[in-house]
């Protein structure tokens, strides 16, 4: 028996990232325009990094609160009051070592070996992979796609539920599709979860990257205090902090100790000096978020206009997040297409095959970058589309 055969089956089955495979193909090429990863091109702003640097220089390098320093949990409560219009307290928040860890801890809390977790697909692949690592079974329910855009049929979610189902994972606004649930859809999903006694893991990381009026609808708008909802989130997108690896869980105060224990036995907390930067991001970063969203809106409109001119690109203008998920007439293998685009157009995209059922024919483009670079990338892509 080989070494790898002695590992847990769940570890052996963890999939290679289909996004990273394309990134590895194109890394280091001269003139490459990388639109494959889910991040913008702006570094973390100085008002955030300076706060972290001061704390680091001041010696804040010791063990700290497992659940997050009080100042950060209080800042999270203030942030939610501003953006969600209800009263929140620091006991509702747990600081995690990234949004990914928040998802992992939420899964650890509600699902284990043999349990099923239903999620909407196409989806960011890390959730299904994390569920598999926990021994749970991820069950995909595909969003519907038509000329009217992406939509969620709650009846399909209901049909996917079995006696083994423990939770529903809902990401809205969605990575990669940009689908954004309206309040009525969120209410219908919540009603279903209540009826079946299920948890909801709500990934609302892009709620402020919404191109309608204000933030996107949230489960917070329709829930009651005792509903079984775990909100997972991250500092990565709103404040250009992808490399910091810091996030949070919002949950009922009664569950705070449980989640503190889960943090203790995984990472034992987030560095205190990093948390100081996160406090400032929350308290002083609203204007930066507005600027980022408007920048992304202009970028979205530019890319959509150029690709639409080809007559072969099929897409729905995204309502939220900062990705264009598009298909090209005649192209069915998006993985092969992504490699060909790297080679012939020198543009990096993520293949739709990486995002699970319903995404196979699509490509994901992150448009959260400066306009001149995006314009060049879009024209290269348009040329590729016309000759593919």
UniProtKB/TrEMBL annotation:
Residues 33-381 form the Aminotransferase class I/classII large domain. CDD domains: AAT_like (cd00609). PROSITE patterns: AA_TRANSFER_CLASS_1. InterPro entries: Aminotransferase_I/II_large, AspAT/PAT-like, NHTrfase_class1_PyrdxlP-BS, PyrdxlP-dep_Trfase, PyrdxlP-dep_Trfase_major. GO terms for biological process: amino acid metabolic process. Its EC number is 2.6.1.-. Transmembrane segments: none annotated. It catalyses: L-aspartate + 2-oxoglutarate = oxaloacetate + L-glutamate. One of its GO terms (molecular function) is pyridoxal phosphate binding. Keywords: Aminotransferase, Pyridoxal phosphate, Transferase. Its cofactor is pyridoxal 5'-phosphate. Gene3D superfamilies: Type I PLP-dependent aspartate aminotransferase-like (Major domain). Belongs to the class-I pyridoxal-phosphate-dependent aminotransferase family. This is Aminotransferase.
């Amino acid at each position: 028996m080989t070494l790898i055969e002695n590992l847990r089956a769940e570890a052996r089955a963890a999939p290679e990232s289909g996004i990273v495979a394309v990134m590895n193909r194109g890394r280091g090429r001269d003139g490459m325009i990388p639109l494959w990863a889910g991040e913008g091109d702006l570094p973390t702003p100085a008002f955030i990094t300076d706060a972290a640097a001061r704390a680091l220089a001041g010696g804040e390098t010791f063990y700290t609160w497992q659940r997050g320093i009080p100042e950060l949990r209080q800042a999270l409560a203030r942030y939610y009051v501003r953006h969600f219009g209800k009263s929140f307290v620091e006991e509702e928040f747990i600081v995690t070592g990234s949004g990914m860890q928040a998802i992992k801890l939420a899964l650890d809390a509600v699902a284990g070996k043999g349990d099923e977790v239903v999620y909407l697909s196409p989806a960011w692949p890390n959730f299904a992979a994390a569920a598999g690592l926990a021994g749970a079974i991820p069950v995909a329910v595909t969003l519907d796609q038509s000329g009217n855009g992406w939509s969620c049929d709650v009846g399909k979610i209901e049909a996917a539920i079995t006696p083994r189902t423990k939770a529903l994972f809902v990401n809205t606004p969605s990575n990669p599709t940009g689908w954004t649930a309206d309040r009525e859809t969120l209410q219908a999903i919540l009603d279903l979860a209540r009826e079946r006694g299920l948890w909801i893991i709500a990934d609302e990381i892009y709620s402020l990257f919404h191109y309608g009026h204000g933030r996107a609808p949230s489960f917070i708008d329709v829930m009651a205090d005792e509903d079984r909802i775990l909100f997972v989130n991250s500092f990565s997108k709103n404040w250009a902090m992808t490399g910091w690896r810091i996030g949070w869980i919002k949950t009922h105060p009664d569950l705070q100790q449980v989640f503190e224990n889960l943090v203790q036995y995984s990472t034992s907390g987030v560095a205190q000096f990093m948390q100081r930067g996160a406090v400032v991001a929350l308290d002083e970063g609203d204007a930066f978020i507005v600027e980022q969203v408007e920048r992304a809106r202009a970028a979205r409109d530019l890319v959509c206009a150029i690709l639409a001119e080809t007559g072969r690109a099929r897409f729905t203008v995204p309502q939220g997040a900062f990705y264009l998920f598009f298909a090209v007439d005649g192209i069915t293998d998006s993985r092969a297409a992504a490699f060909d685009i790297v080679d012939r157009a020198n543009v990096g995209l993520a293949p739709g095959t990486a995002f699970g059922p319903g995404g196979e024919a699509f490509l994901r483009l992150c448009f959260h970058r400066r306009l001149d670079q995006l314009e060049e990338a879009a024209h290269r892509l348009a040329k590729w589309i016309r000759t593919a």
